[in-house]
Amino acid sequence: MTTPRRILAIKLADLGDVLNITPALRALRHTYPQARLDVLLNPHTAGLLRGSPLADEVVLFPKTSFEGLDVFHPRSWLPLSRYVRDLRQRRYDTVINFHHLTTRLGRAKQRALIRLSGAPVTVGLDNGHGHWFTHPVPDQGFGARREVEYWLALARRLGASAPDRSLYLPATAADRAFADGLLDELGLAGRDFAILHPGSGGFSLARRWDPPKFAALAAALLRRFDLPSVLVGTPADDTAAVIAHATTPLPDLSG
């Protein structure tokens, strides 16, 4: 395999999923410092990597522009053709797909997007449906490996090494000052504490732990380790239900 010069990494998911690919991006950057490395993201996750040392450019995928469009209807052709034209003009020689090929529709979309990029080298997980990748990596299924390890395996398939496996989470001076002020308000400045996230994303409600169990965990952490807890998440998560079952103070930072 020739040395990649123009790499496109694809991760059309949410914030936590994008965080999980950062060790693989770092490995690619470390091994191929002269290569251009762009990352294709949904707009709501772009801020995580925009301006970071891990990506030369964050390329936005206009997901909402295509939702509900019938690709066979003429009104869909113009925005789709413009997007494909822009993607091909970037002349990527390598595409790395940081996704499991789970659903039939998802597989079709990812395969079409990667094919339309025009890249001759494609890397991705193969669970029996990824035979079309030029450089497949076996997918042993969810839970068989940590997600970070799956994505590092894709980077290794391109010859990249991973001296640092930590997640990359950028924080500006203003971010740190805001966090310090918030912790001071909560009486947690200078203390260790646990962060509990009772949600699991809108597509995986069945994997959520019951709210009483989170409340019991918070109580056990405080009782056994003198470790207070705070709740984080979105308005759609179960923070209110956890607080309703709590026997110890639980600051709610969701929202």
**Count of runs of 4 or more consecutive helical residues:** 8
Shape: elongated
Q: What is the straight-line distance between the termini? A: 46 Å
Average predicted local confidence, pLDDT: 89
CATH level 1 name of the largest domain: Alpha Beta
Strand order of the largest sheet: 3-2-1-4-5-6
The H-and-E topology, N to C, reads as EHEEHHEHEEHHEHEH
Which band does the percent of strand residues land in?
Answer: 5-15%
* Major beta sheet summary: 6 strands, parallel
Number of strands: 8
CATH topology of the largest domain: Rossmann fold
Any low-confidence stretches, pLDDT <50, length ≥5? none
The secondary structure category is: alpha/beta
The percent of residues in helical segments reads 25-40%
Integer-rounded radius of gyration: 21 Å
Number of domains: 2
- CATH H-level superfamily title of the largest domain: Glycogen Phosphorylase B
The CATH architecture name of the largest domain reads 3-Layer(aba) Sandwich
Describe the structure.
There is one protein chain. The protein has 255 residues and is of the alpha/beta class. Helix content is 38%, strand content 14%. The chain has 2 domains: 6-157, Glycogen Phosphorylase B (Rossmann fold, 3-Layer(aba) Sandwich); 173-245, no CATH class. It has 8 helices and 8 strands; from the N terminus they run βαββααβαββααβαβα. The strands form 2 sheets. A 6-stranded parallel β-sheet has the order 3-2-1-4-5-6, with helices on both faces. It is elongated.
